[in-house]
Design goal:
The protein has a domain of about 55 residues. The protein is about 45% helix and about 5% strand. The protein is built from 2 helices and 2 strands, in the order E-E-H-H. A two-stranded antiparallel sheet has the order 1-2. Strand 1 and strand 2 form a beta hairpin. The longest helix has 25 residues. It starts with 19 loop residues before the first strand and ends in a 24-residue tail after the last helix. The model has no long low-confidence stretch (mean pLDDT about 80). This is DUF4133 domain-containing protein. Keywords: Membrane, Plasmid, Transmembrane, Transmembrane helix.
Length: about 100
């Protein structure tokens, strides 16, 4: 009998941690990239149509505004839920009737 030859491939399962780039985690990396690219696009369009100064202002406002929004959303968490304040009393709808 030949010894069993367990030839296979090692599967890399990762570190089971979210991807982090410059303090942005997971999907917020794409949000940050989108805000930077939108800022550049707005700067190019306004620089060509109006003047260089308006393009520069648009670049700063759109990019930093988008990055600030992204940071606020990331601070809330990846799966943030609406948190309502107050006490809620749920009525009991399915009470068993007393059997006689």
């Amino acid at each position: 009998m030949a010894p069993e030859d367990n030839r296979g491939f090692n599967v890399y399962k990762g570190l089971q941690k979210p991807l982090v780039f410059k303090s942005l985690k997971g999907r917020y990396i794409y949000w940050g990239l989108a805000s930077v690219l939108t800022g550049f696009f707005a700067a190019v369009v306004l620089s060509v149509s109006l003047n260089f100064f308006s393009g520069l202002v648009a670049l700063v406002i759109v990019t930093f505004g988008g990055m600030g929004f992204t940071a606020m959303q990331q601070k809330k968490g990846l799966h943030h839920k609406t948190k309502s304040k107050g006490v809620y009393i749920m009525p009991a709808q399915w009470r068993r009737s007393a059997r006689r």
